[in-house]
Specification:
Length: 694
């Protein structure tokens, strides 16, 4: 039988209220359960919640408590049968100590942020037995007793699971499934576990799915959402057997992610954090809460506070930057208020081969930079910009000498771990750390760079040798990657760090906390940029989301406005043929930056109020997208409108109570009777509109 079922011992251990959320700790024969609901929901019978343990753990040698779970889930193993040793609430934090009575002890922490309503949750295991214990799973969080609060009875029929699918240039697209379509409906006998387990294996955690899930009851507006710190392999699970469900998540376990870890007597292991939000509202509402919470955690250089616009030369030189062409670009952009100038890939290109697979040696090309790259940096800084440079320091490309330095590279089952054109440095080794200090940290400092774009264009998958399991080896390397960011900051104080991984493949919360910005996607100048940018805006703060605005010599004014407004979901990063465009084109770019500078406060601090998008197929987009963001005090509102290919089923937006303050657009439009009416005369037209409260 499942934990908390009829006939089992179920007690309400404790109830707390934090803001608009009620937190229940429920004692069952399957451990201590955790349930979260809006504070106005009445829970009369704790037994009916069918809770299971809030500490989802598996120690080697345990057994499954429910039938039919082998190969389906590692939840509810016998290791979860724990009792509370103590629980204390201090301020907005609850710390619960638990034990199995045999020396396996746990600390479960729930910490509430009153400004956003977001809970931070993590779990720590300590081995107080007299032998080595092997963790095969330890999840960051588990919430159970989930049901449809709009129903008159306890049931999860009608609930929906919302996830975000991700792929290259397709980051964070919403996907909604009703529980029954996933097979998550109860059997006639209240028996037989069902589980929807999903996640990602490897060092590019935003592939397949972004580490987010929400369970919604559309009738009442109830929503429970979770987001994970996930620098390496991760998983989430919706678990179902009886009338209610459970949601858990954390690092990928032994079954899903090839992970186990040995814990010696006296040692501890702590999970990464999970973030939970319970409220009435929409997916956009909980995403706003998560984004505001993440934004408050950031500590970035002072230069980042006013969100300067960037120039990156990648889509100008396509991997062949040089002192000569950068000098020409600098002259062409003189007078345009850029804060950063980034030298992208190719500055290290050997004479014997191309730049793409030559990463790893990091020797500046003296033919491209005959006076040394520091002279180019001087020219950039002379024009009032900070200088940035591109590295992919964690890998060695096939054409590099580093590719053959076997002792410095990751191995799996004794063989060098090789993808199509890359091998991976073993960041745990001191010789690798010393090598990267010289090649990256010292290089940046000696040449005057105060910005680094860190790219990462492949994954080492299930893991590597050097630890007790492949998954643990992979996790250790991912942690060393994060530690290297700290070394960068120590080496170059106030350095601006951009996180890029084939675009947005590593934009999970733990890494994003350590960087200033990310590349939102590798969608450089494609049709779907505004769709992807709107999707990504749900999961990272706007001031961190760097979006390409590539300008071409033959661009029409419509196209320039399209590119500039597409980047206004976050940080504008201009690239392209800026040295070839005419005065009218350049004036339109400058006008876009001026408009952007006037609405930065709404972009950075505002909440997503509405996202209407009728497009289903990104590569042949038919329809339009209208995106609305409103300042916290509701005094200012920004609308970004993009019309793709015909037909259009939405050409207006409600702006009641507001007046138009400014616009940057190529669309015909008017504001009448509280409606913004848009009249596209052709395809791929767009506009940005600032409204202020009347």
């Amino acid at each position: 039988m499942a934990g908390g079922g009829k006939g089992e011992r179920v007690l309400l251990y404790k109830k707390y209220e934090f803001g608009d959320t009620a937190v229940y700790y429920v004692q069952t024969d399957w451990g201590i359960g955790l349930s979260l609901y809006p504070a106005n929901v009445e829970i009369g019978d704790a037994d009916a919640l069918c809770c299971d343990s809030m500490v989802q753990v598996s120690l080697r040698g345990d057994y499954n408590l429910a039938d039919y779970t082998q190969g389906v889930t590692m939840r509810n193993r016998s290791s979860v049968i724990l009792q509370i040793v103590s629980q204390k609430k201090e301020g907005n934090k609850v710390e619960t100590s638990l034990s199995d009575g045999k020396g396996n002890e746990y600390l479960h922490v729930l910490d509430f942020d009153k400004n956003t309503g977001v809970f931070t949750v993590w779990t720590e295991y300590t081995n107080h037995t007299k032998k080595v214990q092997i963790l095969e799973s330890l999840q960051s969080f588990s919430v159970s007793g989930i049901y449809r609060v709009s129903s008159e009875k306890i049931t999860d029929a009608g609930l929906k699971l919302v996830r975000m699918t991700s792929a290259w240039s397709r980051e964070c697209r919403l996907k909604t499934d009703e529980f029954c379509s996933l097979g998550l409906d109860m059997s006639w006998a209240r028996y037989g576990v069902k589980c929807e387990r999903f996640g990602e294996i490897g060092s590019m955690p935003n592939r397949g799915y972004f580490p987010f899930a929400a369970i919604t009851d559309e009738k009442s507006g109830f929503i429970l959402a979770a987001m994970l710190e996930a620098p390496y392999s991760w998983q989430m699970e919706v678990y179902k057997e009886k009338e209610t469900s459970a949601l858990s998540g954390g690092a990928a376990d032994y079954e899903f992610g090839h992970w186990f870890k040995k814990i010696a007597p006296g040692e501890s292991y702590r999970t990464d954090c999970a973030f939970l939000r319970v409220r009435y509202g929409t997916v956009n509402d909980v995403c706003n809460d998560f984004v505001r919470f993440q934004d408050a955690r950031l500590s970035v250089p002072k230069s980042e506070e006013d969100m300067p616009v960037l120039f990156n030369e990648y889509c100008t030189t396509w991997g062949v930057p040089s002192e000569k062409n950068i000098t020409e670009i600098l002259e062409s952009i003189r007078g345009i208020p850029f804060g950063y100038f980034v030298i992208d890939a190719g500055w290290y290109k050997p004479e014997k081969c191309g730049w793409c697979n030559a990463t790893g040696d990091w020797v500046q090309n003296r033919h491209l930079f005959p006076n040394g790259i520091s002279e180019t940096v001087r020219k950039i800084r002379e024009q009032g910009m900070q200088a940035g440079i591109w590295f992919e320091f964690e890998v060695a490309g096939r054409d590099s000498e580093a590719f053959r330095k076997k002792d410095m590279l990751l191995k799996r089952d004794g063989n060098i771990l090789t993808t199509k054109n890359r091998r991976f440095f073993d960041l745990r080794k001191k010789e690798v750390q010393d090598y990267l200090k010289e090649k990256v940290c010292d290089f940046l400092r000696e040449n005057g760079f105060t910005y680094i774009k860190i790219d990462y264009n492949d994954t080492y998958g299930m893991g590597c040798d050097g630890a007790e399991s492949l998954g643990e080896g992979g996790r250790e390397v991912a942690e060393e990657s994060l530690r290297f960011l700290e070394r960068l900051k120590e080496s170059v104080p106030d350095i601006v760090i951009e996180n890029c991984s084939s675009g947005g493949s590593r934009i999970e919360p733990k890494r994003m906390r350590e960087v200033s910005m990310c590349s939102f996607s590798d969608a450089h100048e494609s049709k779907e940029i505004p769709i992807v940018a709107a999707n990504v805006s749900r999961v990272i703060p706007a001031r961190q989301s760097q979006i390409w605005a590539v300008i071409r010599e033959n661009d029409t004014i419509d196209r320039i406005v399209w590119s500039m407004t597409s980047a206004m979901f976050g940080r504008i990063c201009v690239s392209g043929d800026v040295h070839k465009i005419n005065s009218a084109q350049k004036a339109k770019v400058k006008e876009g930056i001026e408009f952007y500078n006037a609405v930065k406060d709404v972009i950075r601090f505002g909440d997503i109020a509405e996202t209407e998008c009728s497009i289903t197929y990104f590569r042949e987009p038919q329809g339009c997208q209208i995106y609305k963001k409103v300042s916290r005090d509701l005094n200012r509102m920004l609308i970004l409108a993009h019309f793709f290919e015909r037909p259009y089923n939405l050409c207006e937006s409600d702006v009641g109570g507001y007046k138009l303050a400014a616009a940057y657009t190529s669309l015909d439009f008017d504001v009448t009777n509280g409606r913004l009416r848009l009249r596209p005369t052709g395809e791929y037209q767009s506009g940005a509109f600032l409204f202020e409260r009347i």
